[in-house]
Amino acid sequence: MAQGVKRWYLSGLQTDERRMSILTIRSAKPADLAAIEEIEKRCFSAMRRSSHRALKHSLKSPTQSVWVASGRIDGKPQVAGAMVLHHHRLSIRIYSLAVLPTFRGSGVGRRLVNRAIKLAHKTDRTSITLEADRRNKVLTGWYETFGFQTYRVLKDYYSPGRHAVRMMRLIVKPALKGGRVCGRS
Ligand SMILES: CC(C)(COP(=O)(O)OP(=O)(O)OC[C@H]1O[C@@H](n2cnc3c(N)ncnc32)[C@H](O)[C@@H]1OP(=O)(O)O)[C@@H](O)C(=O)NCCC(=O)NCCS
């Protein structure tokens, strides 16, 4: 256990910052299913949340991955946020992202999105896409801070009259230093 975390338990100090710092982003396990389902229930309306069956499938699917922000909070294991990714040949789609209300505003969501971006770099994808409620300007503005841009409006996506925007962030490979890497000079 890291020194700071040990101190936190011993002193009983539980500032939000410390609570968040002991959360780690990791790949979800089948044992996380109930916690992820609870997060979906608490963060999305019945119409928009993933079913038990869909989440179970996401955990097993070779073309999807599920990530959680988890750690021991107040001595108990806790899953604070979850993210479902769909892996396509050239892109990654953030299919679902949610953080429990009590853990919001402390960077958990940002860490999950950054994990998706890192994964896209690592697996040579060219972009990341997502859909967001067009009316939720706070949310779309937040995604813009990562470099996402709206490129399409999806009419009636959630329900009649409830439109979504599809946003995309390009994954740009850093230029190779030193010019040519192959061939004769
Ligand atoms: C969007 C969400 C995952 C962000 O998680 P988070 O851990 O609070 O994110 P961070 O702490 O990294 O960033 C906080 C920022 O999120 C932004 N934000 C985005 N959507 C928000 C929302 N619905 N309510 C409040 N803040 C929101 C705010 O700009 C906030 O900035 P602030 O802290 O300066 O006020 C979380 O608000 C959530 O679960 N919302 C409900 C589910 C949802 O809408 N998911 C996205 C589906 S596309």
What does this structure look like?
This protein is α+β, with helices and mostly antiparallel strands and 185 residues long. It has a domain at 23-129: Aminopeptidase (3-Layer(aba) Sandwich). It contains six helices and seven strands, in the order ααβααβββαβαββ. The chain has helices spanning 3-11, 16-21, 33-43, 52-60, 108-122, 137-144, and strands at residues 24-27, 64-73, 76-87, 91-99, 127-133, 149-159, 162-170. Strands 1-2-3-4-5-7-6 form a seven-stranded mixed β-sheet, with helices on both faces. A hairpin with a 2-residue loop joins strand 6 and strand 7 (162-170). Helix 3 packs across helix 4. 25% of the residues are buried. Coenzyme A (COA) binds at residues 43, 97-99, 104-110, 130, 132, 138-139, 142.
What is the compact description of this entry?
This protein is of the alpha+beta class. The protein has a domain at 23-129: 3-Layer(aba) Sandwich (Aminopeptidase).
List the helices and strands and how they pair.
Blueprint lengths: L2 H9 L4 H6 L2 E4 L5 H11 L8 H9 L3 E10 L2 E12 L3 E9 L8 H15 L4 E7 L3 H8 L4 E11 L2 E9 L15
Parallel strand pairs: 4-5
Antiparallel strand pairs: 1-2, 2-3, 3-4, 5-7, 6-7
Q: Spans with pLDDT under 50 lasting ≥5 residues?
A: 1-14
Radius of gyration: 19 Å
Mean pLDDT: 87
Question: How many H/I helices?
Answer: 6
**CATH third-tier fold name of the domain at 23-129:** Aminopeptidase
The largest sheet, given as strand count, sense and whether it forms a barrel, is: 7 strands, mixed
Spatial sequence of strands, sheet with the most strands: 1-2-3-4-5-7-6
CATH superfamily of the domain at 23-129: Gcn5-related N-acetyltransferase (GNAT)
CATH class value of the domain at 23-129: Alpha Beta
Task: Tell me the span between the first and last alpha carbons.
Answer: 52 Å
List each distinct ligand once.
coenzyme A
What is the global morphology? globular
Q: Please give the CATH architecture of the domain at 23-129.
A: 3-Layer(aba) Sandwich
DSSP, total strands: 7
Structural class comes to: alpha+beta
Pattern of helices and strands: HHEHHEEEHEHEE
